[in-house]
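Figure 6 in text form: structure in, sequence out.
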């Protein structure tokens, strides 16, 4: 171990006992190789590079090259994930607005305005209907008034006739009484 160099890695790789770096995805494939590994080096097989790993000096350039390729791939994957996250965020903003309360208040404002307009339309229709009914009522009242005036005229004529008869009878009776009085008076 004195000739070995200790390396730290920022990506989650595993190192087998021979110093070859492996991705965590190949654990199942490496499980079959674990039986060929001596028991004293089995602990190194499952250790992640993120902690500490030992790479022999003769394998160092290959491990560095492989690590660089892996880091490039990791950067590509992280950029892809960032782009995907950005697309998802933009889609969510377009599809599901974050300011739901603001939108709800806007919807309620529009709903109130629509209700107010509907009430005004109903009021106008009611006024028009009442106006039509009022005109009909006015016509009916005019007809009733004309009939009332005709009836009053007829009643007036009857009363005038009765009055004339009564005046005639009274004057006749008065004249008779006057004659009777003149007969009985001594003058």
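Output sequence:
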């Amino acid at each position: 171990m004195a000739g070995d160099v200790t390396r730290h890695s920022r990506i989650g790789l595993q190192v087998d006992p021979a110093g070859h770096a492996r991705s965590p995805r190949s654990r199942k494939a490496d499980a079959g190789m674990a039986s060929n590994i001596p028991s004293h080096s089995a602990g190194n097989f499952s250790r992640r590079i993120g902690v500490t790993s030992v790479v022999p000096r003769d394998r160092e350039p290959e491990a560095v090259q492989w690590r660089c390729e892996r880091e490039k791939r990791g950067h590509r994957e992280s950029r892809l994930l960032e782009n995907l996250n950005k697309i998802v965020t933009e889609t969510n903003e377009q599809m599901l607005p974050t300011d739901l309360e603001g939108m709800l208040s806007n919807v309620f404002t529009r709903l109130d305005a629509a209700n107010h307009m509907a009430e005004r339309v109903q009021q106008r229709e009611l006024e028009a209907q009442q106006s039509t009914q009022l005109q009909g009522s006015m016509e009916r009242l005019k007809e009733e008034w004309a009939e009332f005036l005709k009836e009053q005229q007829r009643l007036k004529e009857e009363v005038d006739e009765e009055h004339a008869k009564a005046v005639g009878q009274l004057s006749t009776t008065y004249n008779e009484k006057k004659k009777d009085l003149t007969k009985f008076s001594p003058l």
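Caption detail: Residues 28 and 34 are 10 Å apart (CA to CA).
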